[in-house]
Amino acid sequence: MLAILVALALVLAIPAAAHADPVEGAVFNKPDGSQAEQYAIADHLMASIDAAPAGSVIRMSFYSVTISSFVDRLIAAHDRGVHVRLLMDDHDIRDTWTRLTAALGQDHTAESFAVLCHRSCFTDYEPSYLHAKMYMFSTSGSAKRVVTISSANPTNGQAVTGWNDAYTMVGDTTMYKAYKRYFEDMTQGALVGLQGSVKADYYRVTKSGRFKTYLFPRGGSGNSSDTIYSILSNVSCSGAASGHGTPTHHTIIKIAMFQWTQYRVNLAKKLWALDDAGCDVEIVFTGSETAGQVVSELTRPGGRYGGPVLHNGARDMNGDAAADFYVHDKYLLVEGNYAGDTSTRAVFTGSANFANNALHYNNEILLRVLDTNAYRSYLRQFSDLKTWIASSASEPVDPPEARISERIFATDE
Q1: Domain count across the chain
Q2: C-alpha 251: how far from its chain's center?
Q3: What's the pTM value of the predicted model, to 2 decimals?
């Protein structure tokens, strides 16, 4: 008996396993890779959940959740005293969400809750969505004020069929407060319902050091109210500093985009014009979610440099004409002459597709990172996408002849 008690005391004396602090920077999944590669983003987030101590606050917004182990981690965090606050779009309620509401409750005045937004949290426009993928931790391990912005929902589909990215910021008080306010405003919008308000001008822009974030929906109309169009208008195609852009000092633009509707064909026209002005423009797109008008503008003849280079990342593996793998990233990379800085290396990433409702109606996040390491990380993933597309034995799924809908399709889950 004494030996048993001594052994038990020794076991109890062993400290709990330490959790690694969240690391600032980019994480990507690889849907055709190993399970660890497929779930790299989900595992990154679950590690942050596991490291959240009692009394800390987790805030998350997403479009869908289907990963059971992700839900288990959130419930376990709540059970150990973490305040877990969740927002989700109400388009598809599954048992994973039902488990969360049963554990956390739906009272927004409580320390933990799980609340739905009907359409966008800010507007009753149809179609509009809570589409912002935001994962916040007041504390995770010894790290404070951790925010991950991603193209990925915590779903199995996003892990095993869609290429996605996530970027984590650590310790930036200004950015953390901006996202916290956004979450709280979305929570209030979800409760009020905003019935009858079909268009909200919530637009907020916050800058802190190398970070800048844009929060939607944005009011207005036309190019002057299109954030991506304004970003592209800041690009000068020549004059890139030595070691930046092309060897001939032209600016490089690379885009990976899931959905691109005819209502943002202005971006395709702008990109064609930039390529014609000497920018090196290259685009990976998901053909099944890209309007034919967009591709027509991008491939318009007559360009002095041949026009943007396109790679269709919608791949049909079983011959049913549906995309079994696709690019779900939503990022824009710029290297060269941007807004007067000839040595720019910029990443613009987040949750927003090139769609009208993403700009004017949805809850969406765009994050700018001015950082060489971040840029190179995304550039490697862009190269991986091209290699995968070129080596894939599957057939591409071409853009539909009819106009593509503004709705978010099942592949976003």
Answers
A1: 2
A2: 25
A3: 0.93
